[in-house]
Amino acid sequence: MTHGLIHHIEIYVSDLNRTVHFWDWFLRELGYTPFQKWRGGQSWKIEETYLVFMQAEDRFLDIPYHRCRVGLNHLAFHASSREFVDAVTTKLKQKGITILYPDLHPFAGGDNHYAVYFEDPDRIKVELIAP
User: Which of 14, 41, 97, 107 is the right S-S partner for 92, CB 3.0 to 4.6 Å?
Assistant: First the structure.
């Protein structure tokens, strides 16, 4: 165990099947492997950290997620290189996934911040950033 590292993150989603379809390829690209699957949830793991997506109950689906409200703004993942960011960007475009801030890409985070930004099906912002 490494003291202080995140053990897991659990996110409720509006449509688990759509979310799993969206996240599976991306997480595998990053080196995550499927970890657990059960009715209403699925997780992927890398080393000692895992990411969980759970189906939200119908009674909580009346107000959609928005990253500017209180709560999670975005998930940011390390990339091994700028070339890896570029390769994932190409795959995102091939899948029809909109790149956020296209006029500033790949420096939307600043001059020394090489990254791609996009959204998952619930509009959770995702960032993949190179060193």
Answer: 97
| Edge-first strand listing for the sheet containing 115-119 | 74-78, 125-129, 115-119
Confidence of residue 3 (pLDDT cuts 50, 70, 90): confident
Flag whether 6 is in a domain.
yes
Taking residue 64's Cβ as centre, other Cβ atoms within 10 Å add up to: 9
On whether residue 68 sits in a domain, the answer given is no
Domain count, the chain: 2
Q: Which amino acid is at 109?
A: G
> What CA–CA distance (Å, rounded) separates 94 from 18?
17
Name the residue range of residue 12's domain: 1-60
- CA dist list (Å): 85 to 49, 50, 94, 121: 22, 21, 14, 20
Domain assignment present for residue 65? The answer is: no
Q: What is the pLDDT of residues 73-88, one digit of tens each?
A: 999 999 999 999 999 9
* Per-residue pLDDT, 1: 60
Each residue of 60-72: pLDDT tens digit?
Answer: 999 999 999 989 9
